[in-house]
Design a protein that fits this description.
There is one protein chain. The protein has 2 domains: about 5-235, Alpha-Beta Barrel (TIM Barrel), CATH 3.20.20; about 240-270, no CATH class. Helices cover about 30% and strands about 20% of the residues. The chain is built from 7 helices and 11 strands. The longest helix is centred in the middle third of the chain and has 19 residues, at about 120-135. The protein is globular and about 45 Å long.
């Protein structure tokens, strides 16, 4: 069975941080290879930073490259619940300064408790949510896993959110890859649905210098995902049928016509 066969009806994505390149930063993921991959990498979650003092050194490059090849980007920020929400969101928004926030969908990564109470962690998340709502006009997506949410958050005290939930198989002995977990993920208590499912944490790396990569699935088709971003298929990139490099998706049909015309010039009407 093909590695990707399990969840083929769901749009495919990856998530990236500095760890998907070499330690010295000299070798980075090849986004032309990522763009040419099948199934198509439709979206990528990119670690922007964490707390209020750390900026992922690879983020700017990843964001530039996803925009170049037409992959929808979801910058994410890891929350430290004991730290000031306003300082952390200032840091997150500072990393994104100058970017068109309407073209992005932001994510808050909630997986650290730092021995804080459920009440404190829920309050920290709510404060971050309200700051981003005021800045962007929408709540961010929240990343976590069902068991962590059940233990550390009061879902009833949160607004209605879109959830990115991790649910994957246990790691296999090195260097074996972990297969994708079938959608849907397990839901936390009080959560009615999911937007993104992180299906594997040790999957084959795509266009990257590392051995592994995290895989994700959108709760719907690529068209559903694009609608969430306020986009259409014609507004993103596809791989050119002539040189296998990214090009505007709407141009693909024209490029096929160009190639056909070139063949007809050489060999006559086909």
């Amino acid at each position: 069975m093909d590695y990707f066969e399990t969840n083929m009806s769901f749009a495919f994505g990856i998530d990236l941080s500095v760890y998907n390149g070499s330690a010295d930063g000299k070798r980075k993921p090849d986004f032309d290879k990522i763009a040419a991959h099948k199934p198509r990498v439709a979206f990528a979650a990119l670690r922007a930073g964490q707390s209020w003092g750390y900026r992922d050194p690879a983020f700017a490059y990843y964001l530039e490259q996803t925009q170049r090849v037409g992959i929808c980007a979801l910058p994410y920020h890891v929350i430290f619940p004991a730290e000031s929400a306003s300082r952390q969101m200032d840091a997150f928004l500072g990393i994104l300064e100058g970017e068109n926030l309407d073209a992005l969908r932001l994510v808050l990564d909630m997986e650290l408790d730092h021995e804080q109470s459920r009440r404190r962690i829920t309050a920290a998340l709510n404060n971050c949510l309200e700051i981003l709502l005021a800045e962007t006009g929408r709540y961010p997506i929240v990343y976590s896993r069902a068991s962590w949410v059940d233990e550390h958050l009061s879902v009833a005290d949160l607004p209605k959110l879109d959830w990115w939930l991790a649910h994957y198989y246990a790691r296999r002995p090195y260097p074996a890859y972990t297969p994708e977990y079938p959608c849907p993920p397990r839901l936390p208590k009080g959560v009615e649905g999911w937007l993104i499912h992180q299906t594997a944490e040790r999957a084959p790396a795509i266009g990257a210098s590392g051995w592994y990569m995290d895989y994700n699935r959108w709760a719907g088709s690529e068209e559903d995902m694009l609608a969430y971003f306020g986009k259409t298929a014609a507004s993103v990139s596809a791989v050119c049928p002539i040189d296998d490099k990214p090009c505007p998706r709407g141009a693909t049909e024209n490029m096929e016509k160009v190639r056909l015309n070139e063949l007809e010039d050489t060999y006559g009407n086909l």
